[in-house]
């Protein structure tokens, strides 16, 4: 796994309306962006009246399943909505964990969206290789060059 970005935050399957923090299906997670996609790995959080134990939770979203990313607003929180081929997922980045959960979420969401776009571009760039015979761009895992027919080993 090549880690491109790591943060903490809240993760929910579906689009959220209102406060996501106290919803039982919301998990507090490490948000890892890798060359393969997203990994959400549950951790514990305790502050104010909020106690979340998401230990044991894990959810992955590969790049190939992602249609789009958008910044959104759920109540006072600024979130990232990931649209996949079959669902929507909401991320509320809170890294570092603030005194108030919602403080700084706009900046965190803007920063995370920029990081996602950079990571996705890096992943796409890494998928492009060149033919050793003619120099033409070829797709990763190609068996031969579409331009000159050179076979890759």
Radius of gyration: 19 Å
What is the 3D shape? Answer: elongated
N-C termini distance = 24 Å
In helices, the fraction of residues equals 10-25%
Number of helices: 1
Mean pLDDT: 79
The SSE order reads EEEEEEEEEHEE
Task: Report strand order across the widest sheet.
Answer: 6-3-2-1-9-8-7
The total strand number stands at 11
Beta content comes to 35-45%
Low-confidence runs: none
Largest sheet: 7 strands, antiparallel
Structural class determined from secondary elements: mainly beta
Account of the protein in words:
The protein has 153 residues and is mainly beta. It has 1 helix and 11 strands, in the order βββββββββαββ. The strands form 3 sheets. Strands 6-3-2-1-9-8-7 form a 7-stranded antiparallel sheet, covered by helices on one side. The relative contact order is 0.16.
Topology:
Elements: E1 3-13, E2 27-34, E3 37-42, E4 44-47, E5 50-53, E6 58-62, E7 66-74, E8 77-84, E9 88-93, H1 105-126, E10 128-130, E11 137-139
Antiparallel strand pairs: 1-2, 1-9, 2-3, 3-6, 4-5, 7-8, 8-9, 10-11
Overview features:
elongated; mainly beta; two-stranded antiparallel sheet; seven-stranded antiparallel sheet; single chain; 153 residues
């Amino acid at each position: 796994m090549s880690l491109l970005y790591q943060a903490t935050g809240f993760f929910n399957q579906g689009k959220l309306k209102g406060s996501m923090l106290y919803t039982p299906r919301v998990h507090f997670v490490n948000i890892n962006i890798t060359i393969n996609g997203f990994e959400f790995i549950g951790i514990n959080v305790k502050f104010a009246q909020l106690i979340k134990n998401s230990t044991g939770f894990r959810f992955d979203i590969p790049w190939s399943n992602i249609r789009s990313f958008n910044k959104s607003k759920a109540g006072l929180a600024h979130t990232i909505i990931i649209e996949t081929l079959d669902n929507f997922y909401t991320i509320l980045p809170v890294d570092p964990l603030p005194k108030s959960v919602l403080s700084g979420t706009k900046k965190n969401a803007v920063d995370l969206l920029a990081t996602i776009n950079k990571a996705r571009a890096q992943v796409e760039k890494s998928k492009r290789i060149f033919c050793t015979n003619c120099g033409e761009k070829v797709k990763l895992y190609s068996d031969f060059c579409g331009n000159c027919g050179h076979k890759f080993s």
